[in-house]
Amino acid sequence: MTTTASTNDSTTIAITKLYSLGQGKVHYEPHFAQGIGLITLDNPERQNAFSGKMMVEFHEIVVRLEKQDPKDTVAIIVTGAAGKAFCAGLDLTFAQKHLREPGMASHVNHLMHDALSRFSRLPYITVASMAGPALGGGTEMITAFDYVCIASTTFLRFVQTRMGVSSPWEISVNHLSVYDTGGARRLANSLGRKKALFILGSAPKIDANMAKELGLADVIVNTTRGSDAYNACLDASKTFLRGFIFDERTNERVTPGAVRGMKKLIVRADLKEDEAFEASVLQELAGLSKI
């Protein structure tokens, strides 16, 4: 377990409470492919649902990505362990054992809200490689990605209202900063109010075609039941990202800092107009210009 100067007191307390609870792991492979890192949610016995320790590991990876020298990294792919769900949300075995303790639910909500808010504004192009279903908190996670590659045989469902809760990782227990967002707000900002309310309130089972039609998914990967959807979705994710990494005309690497700079501008544009910030990013990239 590690903490950094960029975590506040509430986050540090949540990490301390959760880091040893439950099973599963979250792995980060920084050189999965040229310019691409890979995060894997690895809890196959629980359909890759988040335990307490996995939440802490995911948060630590995100903070590390914020702080690291990115070098040539342009994109991050996230997947669930092969043959299972992308993410089934909260590990119910962990929840039943630990969330009845006073304050523990608030620690979970705070840590995952912080992790996903940070993840959504990383200066990398992020892609969900969704070979299996996303449910509950797993769909909250989907809202934090720039793009989603979904297997034609899988689905997602925002089941929160069917479990008697609202968007679970929506509100930070601390004062919200200008950067703080949760899954419901990300969904409304991305798809519009009516679509977001339909998806969250009526909880339809959303297959791949419907996901693309609604704007929840960007690439449908044709798979058959029993086929290797895991590798097919990873390959499709890498193919989708190629335009961010290589110039299709010359096949040379696109300047990584330029792509990351564009992501920073888009993240900022989601918040408010800020000409000064745009100017600062352009200045930061001045030495990388090919013009």
Characterise this structure.
This is ClpP/crotonase-like domain-containing protein. GO terms for molecular function: lyase activity. Keywords: Lyase. This protein has 291 residues and is α/β, with parallel strands linked by helices. The chain folds into 2 domains: 9-247, 2-enoyl-CoA Hydratase, Chain A, domain 1 (Alpha-Beta Complex); 255-291, no CATH class. 43% of the residues lie in helices and 15% in strands. It is built from 11 helices and 9 strands. It has helices at 9-18, 52-67, 92-98, 104-120, 137-142, 183-191, 193-202, 208-214, 229-245, 256-271, 275-284, and strands at 25-33, 36-42, 75-80, 125-130, 134-135, 147-151, 155-157, 206-207, 219-221. The strands form 2 sheets. Strands 1-2-3-4-6-9 form a 6-stranded mixed β-sheet, with helices on both faces. α1 packs across α2, α1 packs across α4 and α10 runs antiparallel to α11. The chain is globular. The model is unreliable at 171-180 (pLDDT under 50).
Overall geometry: globular
- The CATH architecture classification of the largest domain is Alpha-Beta Complex
Count of alpha/pi helices: 11
H-E string? HEEHEHHEEHEEHHEHEHHH
Mean pLDDT: 88
CATH class identity of the largest domain? Alpha Beta
Regions with little confidence, pLDDT below 50 for 5+ residues: 171-180
The quaternary state of the protein chains shown equals single chain
Q: From the 3D structure, determine the CATH topology of the largest domain.
A: 2-enoyl-CoA Hydratase, Chain A, domain 1
Derived structural class: alpha/beta
Question: How many E strands?
Answer: 9
Tell me the major beta sheet: 6 strands, mixed
